[in-house]
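Translate sequence into structure tokens.
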Amino acid sequence: ITLSTCAYDFEDFRIVVVARKVRDGESADVDLSKAVENPNPLYPQIWYKSYGGTPPTVTSFQEAYNNKEIDWYDGDKKWSVNDDEELERVLGEGKKNAENMLHAFVEKIDYADKEQEEVNKLVQDYINKMNASDSADEVNRLYNEAIEEIKKIKTREQVNAEESAEAEASRIRAEASRIRAEAEASQESARELSAKKQAAIAEMRNSIAGNQYRLDDADKVTKLIKEYTDNITDAETIEAVEELRKESIEVLSAIKTDAELRKEESAAAQASKKAAEESSRQAEASRQAEAFRQAQELANAKEEAVEQLDTYAALDEYPASLQSEIKTIIANYQSAIKSVSTKNDVDNLLQVAKDAIDEKISAYEEEQEPPSEVTTDENED
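Result follows.
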């Protein structure tokens, strides 16, 4: 009996569970401990097309029986013409399946035109051989042999990879040849290059011979000599050696010796001294100019204060005695103003003098006013 149900591994796929009747001598009880997984089951052809692999060899019932691989058949059933026809039909299906599987195997592989022709011819040759076979075992053997032979034919990717590898190898050979030629050409000038290097290093060292440096600069010079010596030694061309020679001498000459630094320091000290003297001179000139300005400003303030006091009061309007007193105040304060040393003192004395004059005039004007009349209330007791 069979049980067929849906499966979704592939399109229109089905799973069929097959059961048979217990044979004579068999027990309906199953010892599951003896059950094992088939390591190489036969899958549908679409499985191999999708996932690759090779189906196991499948023999016909008759072949298995003849090879004594079947021990449950009692042999009662007699072989007939119908059985021959069925065997032929099954063998034909096997051949067709093998043919389809060969085509499916090569369809997944990309070949270049030349290799594709070779594959097509190989496939057809093996199909012809399988069709001429009268044994399922032979068909399976031929199929497996065809697969192995097909695998030997290079794919487009393999051909391209080999061509690329050959092109790269050719490029490397050409590059090696070029390098070898250059090496042979440069070998002749190797001695000249070595001599240039030695001369450049010697000239660099001689450029500072006898120079005395301060401690930090001496360390710097030592490091530079080592660095340029290494660079000149590693230089590969005469031009590079010459550039390094010029550069090293220029860089080393930029580092000042102790004598040069002393000379610069002395010059700097002299310049600083002159600058300080000039600054002092300018400061003194500025101080004198400021003093002159302040003196001039004070003189102007005194002159202006004296003039203000001369015209501050209209003396003609007052009697001679008051005029005399005011003139005395004016003269005294003008004398005092002329003797002070700051503009602030001038302003203060000017204001004091004006206040004194105003006080004299106010006192005089109060004396000239008539006395106020005193009134009494008739009702006052």
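Note: Residues 60 and 90 are 8 Å apart (CA to CA).
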